[in-house]
């Protein structure tokens, strides 16, 4: 059940978009299709967010702070609040 919730959160995070946020969410599929074009610059996490859009905004903000232009959600959990982890990338 936790896995299904995590997948639902990841999909929801991917469906929400913000024009003011500069780091772009990549799906795992899009990243894997063009893996050689990206260089990893770090890993970010968020916890305690109350909505998928808040979690996405926080991950994007942290990716920006790392100097990344893209991030890929690697895990998500919705125990009581939304917790997520993402890898941050730049184009080579």
TrEMBL record:
Q: Which InterPro entries match?
A: BhsA/McbA_stress_biofilm_assoc, Dodecin-like, YdgH-like_sf, YdgH/BhsA/McbA-like_dom
- What does the UniProt keyword field contain? Signal
User: For this UniProt entry, which segments traverse the membrane?
Assistant: none
Q: Which residues form the signal peptide?
A: 1-22
| Domain YdgH/BhsA/McbA-like span(s) in chain numbering | 39-90
Write down the NCBIfam families for this protein, in alphabetical order. PRK09929.1
State the name under which the record lists this protein. Answer: Putative exported protein
Organism the protein comes from: Buttiauxella brennerae ATCC 51605
């Amino acid at each position: 059940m936790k896995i299904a919730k995590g997948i639902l959160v990841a999909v929801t995070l991917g469906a929400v978009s913000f024009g003011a946020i500069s780091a772009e969410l990549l799906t795992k599929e899009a990243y894997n299709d063009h893996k050689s074009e990206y260089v990893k610059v770090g890993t970010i996490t968020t916890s305690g967010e109350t909505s998928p859009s808040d979690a996405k905004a926080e991950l994007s903000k942290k990716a920006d702070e790392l100097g990344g232009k893209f991030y890929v959600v690697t895990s998500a959990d919705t125990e009581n609040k939304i917790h997520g982890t993402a890898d941050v990338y730049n184009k080579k």
